[in-house]
Write a structure and sequence with these properties.
By secondary structure, the protein is an all-alpha fold. It contains 17 helices and no strands.
Length: 408
C-alpha cells in the first residue's frame, strides 16, 4: 500500500530546534556558498589575472549544476528524508571552500564551482522546505521562519567576508568560511535531521502503483505546475538581472553612488518586513492569496525605475520598498504556495523540477540584459523587458492560484 507522509505523521512544532537549527544552517549556507562569491572577484582578479567574465563564468557553471541536481536531490529527500544528503552536502561545501583557497588554475576553479553548485542544491535552495513540509505540523509557519533567517544571510556574510578578506587575505578568508560551514550547517544537519522523513517515506510498491503515475509526473501534466514555473522563472530572471545591473542603471538615471548604496541597503529590511508579516498572519492568509498580492509588486517596482530620475531618493526608496516586500513574500509563497496548489507529496522532486525550469533564466539574465544595453546604449529597453516579464509572471501565478487546492 501507499503510505505517504500525512499531517498526523508530522512530529515537530514550527518552533522546534529542528526548524531553528535548519534556519541557522540556511543563513550560513547561503552566506558561504553564494553571497560571499562577489567579494572574492576583485582580489582573485588582482592575484591570478583572470577576467571578471572568467570568474563569473564559474558562478554560472555552479548555478547550472545546482539546477541539474535539483530533481535527483529532491527525489532522494522525498524518499529518505534530508539527513544524509544535507549533511553530506554541507560537509562537501566546507571541503570545496577549503580547496578554493588553494586554487591556481581556471579549470580547477570551474570544477570547484560545479561541485559547489551540487552542494548548494543538496543543502539550501528548496531542500529545507521539503524537510519541514514532511516533518513539521505547521509547515507554513516553519517555512516562514526558514525564509526569515535565510533573508539575513547577505546582511551577515557580506560584511563578515569583507572583514575576513581585509584582515587575512582572500585565501585565508575562504579557510575561515570553510570552518564556519563545517561547524554550523554540517554539524546541525548531522544532528538535527537524524530520524526525519520525506514526503514519500514508507511508500511500498504495489501492482496498482504501476498504473498510478508518480506525483511528479502528475504534477507535470497540470496547468498549475507550468504556470508556477513561469511565474518563478520570471521572478528569478528579474531578480538576477537587477542584482547585477541596478547600480549602473541607477547611475544612468543621475543618482549618486552614495545615494544608491544607501537606498539599496534598505532592501534587506523590506524583505524581512514582509516575511515577519507572513509569520504573524500565519494560516489566516493562505499562501496563494499572499502570492496574488506579492507578484503585483514586481511590475510596479520596475515601472518606478522610469520615474527615479525625476523623484530622486524618494523614488529609489519606493522602488526598494516594492521590490523588497514582493521578493520577501514570494520566497515563502514559492514553498507554501506550491504545497497548497500541487500538494505536499513529492514536494522535493516537484520543486526540483521548477528549479530546473528556472535554471536558464537564472543564469541567462545578467548576460542577456548586458547585451540589450550594449545594443541600445540605454537601460530603458531593459526596464520594459523586466516590467513585461514580471507582468507575465504575475498573470501566471494568478492562473495557478485559481486551481482547486491539492489534497495532502
Amino acid at each position: 500500500m501507499i503510505h505517504p507522509t500525512g499531517p498526523d505523521e508530522r512530529r515537530f512544532a514550527a518552533s522546534s530546534p529542528l526548524v531553528w537549527g535548519l534556519g541557522l544552517a540556511q543563513l550560513v549556507g547561503w552566506g558561504t556558498l553564494y553571497f560571499a562569491f562577489s567579494l572574492f572577484v576583485e582580489p582573485m582578479e588582482a592575484e591570478l589575472g583572470w577576467s571578471r567574465a572568467d570568474l563569473n563564468g564559474a558562478l554560472a557553471a555552479g548555478l547550472l549544476a545546482a539546477g541539474l541536481a535539483s530533481i535527483p536531490v529532491g527525489a532522494w529527500i522525498d524518499r529518505h528524508g534530508g539527513h544524509k544528503v544535507m549533511t553530506f552536502g554541507a560537509a562537501a561545501g566546507a571541503v570545496l571552500l577549503a580547496l578554493w583557497s588553494r586554487v591556481d588554475t581556471l579549470a580547477g576553479f570551474y570544477a570547484l564551482w560545479i561541485g559547489i553548485g551540487i552542494a548548494t542544491a543538496s543543502t539550501v535552495q528548496d531542500v529545507p522546505f521539503a524537510v519541514v513540509t514532511a516533518n513539521v505540523k505547521d509547515y507554513r509557519r516553519a517555512i516562514s521562519y526558514l525564509a526569515f533567517l535565510g533573508g539575513l544571510s547577505s546582511t551577515v556574510f557580506i560584511p563578515l567576508t569583507k572583514l575576513l578578506i581585509d584582515a587575512f587575505g582572500w585565501r585565508q578568508a575562504l579557510l575561515a568560511l570553510a570552518l564556519i560551514q563545517l561547524l554550523i550547517p554540517a554539524l546541525l544537519n548531522g544532528v538535527l535531521l537524524r530520524g526525519t522523513r520525506g514526503s514519500r517515506s514508507g511508500e511500498t510498491a504495489t501492482p496498482g502503483l504501476a498504473r498510478d503515475p508518480s506525483p511528479l509526473r502528475r504534477a507535470l501534466t497540470r496547468r498549475a505546475f507550468w504556470a508556477l514555473a513561469i511565474c518563478f522563472s520570471a521572478q528569478t530572471f528579474m531578480f538576477n538581472g537587477v542584482t547585477f545591473h541596478i547600480i549602473p542603471l541607477l547611475r544612468e538615471r543621475g543618482l549618486a553612488l552614495d545615494t544608491i548604496v544607501l537606498g539599496l541597503a534598505l532592501f534587506g529590511p523590506a524583505q524581512l518586513a514582509s516575511r515577519v508579516l507572513l509569520v504573524f498572519v500565519g494560516e489566516a492568509v493562505p499562501a496563494r492569496v499572499a502570492g496574488r498580492i506579492a507578484v503585483l509588486f514586481f511590475p510596479a517596482a520596475m515601472l518606478v525605475l522610469f520615474a527615479v530620475e525625476r523623484l530622486g531618493f524618494a523614488g529609489l526608496l519606493l522602488y526598494v520598498g516594492l521590490f523588497g516586500l514582493g521578493n520577501g513574500a514570494l520566497t515563502i509563497v514559492r514553498a507554501a504556495g506550491t504545497v497548497e496548489i500541487l500538494g505536499a507529496r513529492a514536494f522535493g522532486a516537484i520543486t526540483g523540477a521548477t528549479n530546473l525550469v528556472m535554471m536558464l533564466p537564472r543564469t541567462a539574465a545578467p548576460v542577456a540584459l548586458a547585451w540589450l544595453w550594449e545594443a541600445t546604449g540605454t537601460y530603458d529597453p531593459v526596464i520594459w523587458i523586466l516590467a513585461a516579464t514580471t507582468t507575465a509572471g504575475a498573470i501566471a501565478f494568478w492562473i495557478a492560484s485559481l486551481e482547486k487546492p491539492a489534497e495532502e
